[in-house]
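fyi for ur records
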Amino acid sequence: FFFFKQKTAYEMQRGLVGSEMCIRDRYMGIQEMVSKTGDINILLADDEPICRTMVSAMLKKLGAISKATENGAECLKEFKANPKKYKMILMDVQMPTMDGFAATAEIRKLDKKIKIVGLSGDSDDDTKAECIKCGMTSVMAKPVKATDLQALLKTLQVRTTSI
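which gave:
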C-alpha cells in the first residue's frame, strides 16, 4: 500500500510541490514557535540582505520587534539615537564601513550592560575570543537558527513557548 500525505488547503491553493513545500514546511515550523515576548526590541546589524531578512522574520515570528541595519556604523548611530529602546543587539562580526568588533567597542562606551551577541560564520576559537575581548556578551553561529534565537530570547527573561 502507498500512503500519500493529504494536501492542506494552503498547498491546494498555491499548488506547492517539491522544494517549495519543504520551504513552506520550514516557514510554518518557525511560525508555530510564536511566543509572547512583550514586544522586545532587538537591534540587528548584518551586511547581507538575506541574513537581515531571515533573522528579522524569525524574530518577528518569535514575538520580538527588530530594527535592521547594514553595518556597524549604522547600528551605532541607531543605538546612540535610541539607547534605552533596545534590549539586545545582534551584531555581525564582519561588515564593511565598520565591523562588529569596532561597533561593539563604541557601544560599550555608551552602555556596559546591553546584551550584544556576535553573529559569525567562523566558529574557530580565535573569532570567539575576539568577540568576547571587544565586549560582546556571546557568539552565535551563522546561519542563525530559529531555535537558537528562541533560546537567546529566553536569556532575556521573556516567556517563550517550547519547541
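Residues 18-31 form the longest helix (14 residues). thats all i got for now
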